Structure formats: C-alpha cells, structure tokens
Amino acid sequence: MPHPTRILCVCLGNICRSPTAEAALRAALGDGAQVDSAGTGAWHVGEPPYPPMQAAGRRLGLAMADLRARQVSLADFRRFDLILAMDRQNLRDLQALDPGGGARLALYLDPLGGGDVPDPYYTRDFDGVAAQIVQAAGAWAESL
Ligand code: 4NP
C-alpha cells in the first residue's frame, strides 16, 4: 500500500541525521512515499552525507551516497504534508520560519515517545543513532 504522505526530515546540517532518516523512511514506507531532507543551516549545502554517517547507514542497508545537503526553504512548508524535526532546537527553528497553513510539524522520535535524536557529528555514535533512526522509521510506517 503506497503512502501518499510527503515527508521532509530536518536537522541542523543535513549531512548526518536527516539524510539517514530520509533513507530509513523511504525504505520503511516503500516506493509510494515522497521523502526528502533538509537542514536548518546552510554550512554543508551541496555536500553528500558525512562519510562516517553513510558508513553506519550502509551497515543497516541504507543507501545515502547520492543525497546532497540543502537548506530548508519557505516553499517546503507547502510542498510537504509532514515535517519531522530531529531535535527540539530544529523544531523551534522550523516553528520560527513556518508561515502557517501548510505542513504539520512534529519530532521524528514522536512515535517512540519524543525527545531528541542526538547529533552524531558531536557524539560520534553513528551506529547508535542510525539504529535509533531506523527504529523510528518503522514506527512511523506503522502509524501513518
Ligand atoms: P546533522 O549534524 O545536523 O545531523 O547533519 C551536523 C553536522 C554538521 C554541523 C552540525 C550538525 N555543523 O555545524 O557543521
């Protein structure tokens, strides 16, 4: 059963958590899903996912090499039905940009009880975060 929902995953840099979530949701929801990712910051625009993050994703079967970082834009709030923030700071940043009347905003970990996906760019726990992201993608697939 294809999922018509258009989902955007958002983190700070769009090179660690949100591209992993994009790949995990695409795998969990199947071909009918429209899934993308973006960052609230612009530092890494145009870059592929951070190599240690790609390696951790690959160990779980996620293909991320072709993804490229971009920054969230105002148009995203109407292009997507659901925008999933990786942490509460990302959510606050999205709420500050939100023109209203468009996408629903939520935390990526809401189906697992909420809270933050820790940023592996700083914690260096790429495998732990990848596993958490895949688990939450499965929970979204159950609840959408
Ligand atoms: P992400 O991790 O938000 O999960 O992509 C980060 C990567 C890079 C930076 C911050 C967070 N940075 O500031 O360069």
Bound ligands, each once: 4-nitrophenyl phosphate
The Rg value, from CA coordinates, equals: 14 Å
Mean pLDDT: 96
User: How would you describe the shape?
Assistant: globular
Q: What is the tally of beta strands?
A: 4
Helix content: 40-55%
CATH superfamily annotation: Response regulator
Largest sheet: 4 strands, parallel
CATH topology, what is it called?
Rossmann fold
Instruction: Tell me what portion of residues adopts beta-strand conformation.
Output: 5-15%
CATH class: Alpha Beta
Spans where pLDDT lies below 50 across 5 or more residues: none
Q: What order do the helices and strands follow? A: EHEHHEHEHH
**How does the helix and strand content classify structurally?**
alpha/beta
List the domain count as a whole number.
Answer: 1
Give the neighbour order of strands across the main sheet: 2-1-3-4
